[in-house]
Amino acid sequence: MTLYVSDLDGTLLSDEGKLKPRTADMLNRFIDGGTLFSYCTARGLATAGEIMSEVRINAPVVLMNGVYIYDPVTGEYPVRNMFGERQCELLRNVVTENGETPMIFAFIDGRERVSFVKDAANLKKHLSRRKGDSRRRPLADNSGLFDGEMFYAAFIDPVNKSALETVFTEENGFRTACYTDTYPPHQLWFEVFPANAGKANAVRRLKELTGADEIVCFGDNANDLPMFGASDRCYAVGNAIPEVKAAANGVIGTNEHYGVPEFIEKEIFPVFPYTPADRCAPDAERFTEAVSKALSRERTTIGTLNEKAIHNALKCYYCNEADHEAKIGGFYADGAGENGIFEIQSANFTYLAKKLSQMLRVSHVTVVYPYEKRSHIISVNESTGEVMSETTRTDNSFSKLFLELYRLKAFLTNPNLTIRIALLSVDKKICYKNEKRIRRKGMKKEKVPTGFIQEIVLESSSDYAIFLPDGLPGTFTKAELQKLCRTTDAGIMLSVLEFVGAVHRVGKRGNAILWGIAPTE
């Protein structure tokens, strides 16, 4: 079994140091399917645990650059490295003699704490990004700085780096990491921890603890290089520093573009044989035959025409050569054949998500979504047969479609999934019991598909660009998108488009998020 281990900042997390919802959903899907996933970070349990709280981690995690390993399943610490008495004395001396103001991590009264001089100028930028950290222990001066069982010290923009390098050596029982911080203002970090700690040793212990056959690591910065050396395979994200890319087996997507989860997805999900969707105009003659077959079937079975007529017409159109109602695991598919599984789904993709979790593991799946683009509505008095009103409406809103897509968000980037949106013209006959007042109570509806206007095929992030309105600038706000797409909910649209990688956040304009269109594949 493979254990995937990712660095957090600059690798799995966004440039803002946050876990994107799509990343969490994808990781949970992998983990629920049995994939082992862990992380290895310079962060402590408090901040790393909070950031990763949405992910159902199923393996021990490496914290403080390998100082200790924590098992989120059991709540135990399988590995915990502390400074010995001699290391504590050397640490106190070098801080005092050189006027350094580090952050020192220790267990005090059984609790992890971070002690620091609160007015230290070199710590202000970092601390401002970590507000609310319950481990903080601000001090007026160095008194109390060395309390507890110390296990890690971070010197940010040290006063005397050469002195630190002289004292904190392996011979003296230390291991160090020196690198430039991922986040602005990109300060120099000099980290000190026990000699038997470090990302390399921690990753080796993870392999033992999980019984994994292989460790695959992901990173971006210099402190990830030891972890790379201890892994079976290692990959640098696209935004990694040159040294990390040079040491890696390969370079994957950036942290902002879901490099880690997309790499894992491609590894753990086999791509099944599939002939790509035909992107030509719909076959009008074949659709007419499919409708006739569906109407004949409907009248034979239940005697009325409703949404099932549309469902059966599309089933006949798309699954004519397939095995209808094929059983896949605990579910039935509308069709299954040489080109995979077909599912006709007019509403409630929440239930469809349960099907996909099984079906995508055994075959390519094509989901067909009927969208009533043009409706010819006839209101009829049921008793007399009199036509009370007649109108034609065109629906230009894709809000309902995007709401359904959002419910499938964890599957949208799966290479074995195709979504085909069938834009239809439909005759709607509405029968009323009361000839004087048109009202919903007692109303009966009949729907008959009359034409196949257009098909939209979604197989990659670039396919979603069709929903972006003409005249949209290269960078835009949600309000600007809403103005152009009018009836479609821009908020739901953006959440889906960001999820599939069709758009991405590029900054802010005032308080509004600024969006950019992702380059086409």
SSE diagram, text form:
Layout: E1 2-6, H1 8-12, H2 21-32, E2 36-39, H3 45-51, E3 61-63, E4 68-71, E5 76-80, H4 85-98, E6 103-108, E7 111-117, H5 124-129, E8 136-139, E9 149-156, H6 161-167, E10 174-180, E11 188-194, H7 199-210, E12 214-219, H8 225-230, E13 233-236, H9 242-247, E14 250-251, H10 259-268, H11 284-301, H12 307-318, E15 323-328, E16 331-337, E17 340-344, H13 349-359, E18 365-381, E19 387-394, H14 399-407, E20 417-432, E21 444-458, E22 475-476, H15 478-485, H16 490-500, E23 503-509, E24 512-517
Parallel strand pairs: 1-2, 1-12, 7-8, 12-13, 13-14, 17-18, 18-20
Antiparallel strand pairs: 3-4, 4-5, 6-7, 6-9, 9-11, 10-11, 15-16, 16-17, 18-19, 20-21, 22-24, 23-24
Helix pairs in contact: 2-10, 11-12, 14-16
Compact description:
The protein folds into four domains: 2-75 and 198-268, HAD superfamily/HAD-like (Rossmann fold, 3-Layer(aba) Sandwich), CATH 3.40.50.1000; 85-194, Hypothetical Protein, Haloacid Dehalogenase-like Hydrolase, Chain: A, domain 2, CATH 3.30.1240.10; 284-459, no CATH class; 460-521, Arc Repressor Mutant, subunit A (Orthogonal Bundle).
